[in-house]
Hints:
Structural class: alpha/beta
Number of helices: 19
Number of strands: 13
Shape: flat
Radius of gyration: 29 Å
Oligomer: single chain
Distance between the termini: 58 Å
Strand content: 5-15%
Amino acid sequence: MLTPKEIVEALDKYIIGQDKAKRAVAVALRNRYRRSLLDPDMREEITPKNIIMVGPTGVGKTEIARRLAKLVDAPFIKVEATKFTEVGYVGRDVDSMVRDLVDASLRLVKERKREIVRVSAEINTERRLVELLMPKQARKKQAQPNIMQLLLPSAENNNEEPETTETEKQERISKKHELLNNLRNGSLEDVVVEIEVEENNNAEGSMLAMGIDINMGEILGGMLPKKKKVRHIPVREARRIILQEESDKLIDMDDVITEALNKAEQDGIIFIDEIDKITVTSQGAGVDVSREGVQRDILPIVEGSTVSTKYGPIKTDFMLFIAAGAFHVAKVSDLIPELLGRFPIKVDLLPLTQEDLKRILTQPDNAVIKQYKALLKTENIELEFLDSAIEEIAKLAHEANETGDNIGARRLHTILENLLEDVSFDAVCGVGRNIIVDVDYVKTHLSESIEADLQKYIL
Length: 459
């Protein structure tokens, strides 16, 4: 398990600044590990210290929580608090956030189990692909049983086909070896095969009204037989489908469900965004009543309760809840006291400075400039950003956030899209060229967009 200092260092690779928030989540994560080392009686008495992050949009609130979950391979979901007020008087059932977390935990555990059985599944996949690639005349055709064969087992051998000769067997084995070798060297990837797959029903059949969140497909899924359809697809796509089917055959789903429920209970992280949008800022009826109702519905989930899911009941007592909001209009104290008391750790995230924006452009492992360089390199275009250009881009982004809507680091994406629009549009694969972006290039290509943005402030 990582130490708090190591957790902060890992977060620094992707998030610039916000040291207080990083320290808070690092300590919360380390406390989980400390709790796991205690004896069971004491462990049951210690619950996570939930965190509420306060800061403008685009400063890294969601990214901190998401990267934190990835560090420890913990189930993670992000929910918008406002979605619980959108439908009907109360909104969507708040229990759905816990059910979504269980689904995320199930995917994590299942993926890890698939990696364990991957070698065996790949061998079985190759066998099935070889059978699909065998010439039709070489494959034995199964005779359709008649009604007498179904009713009288003794009659099932009446229509048996004659056995193949030894020569035919050897030819079949040789053909399989040949196909297997071709399959492994990648020469059959574009060959179309016929495969039978389960038919997915895109319409979930969910009922969302008056706080009801029911998926009829989930309720009837075990009662109705799964529909299958025949598809004609290339080998590369068939391999992916068959590999998943073969992996699932080798996995014990009962163990997966048990482990997933335990992982969601003990390691799950639920990020509740825009919690400031459900605060009650004035006395009276109307929408404020619905907002306070949502807060009271969220309260037992955060406090600790048992939620029913299709995989079984799950407790929320030891899940880590991280809430976040800009709180431009409302204040943190506008939350109902009972809910606010369930978030004992309050962290303020600072607006991004010009220096922060400059570092975001270049320093993180997923830096914005690195992303654009990689994208255009696929078209054989080499981008080079001079320091003066990076300084100018950060300056323009900071000024735009100060004079307009402050959208934080997202402003950099807007500016770079406008800056590199001509390059991206005119890029032709195979025509190599080098483009040096300096301060003059930035001013020339962004002058029109900057003037357009400032027009609304001129009276």
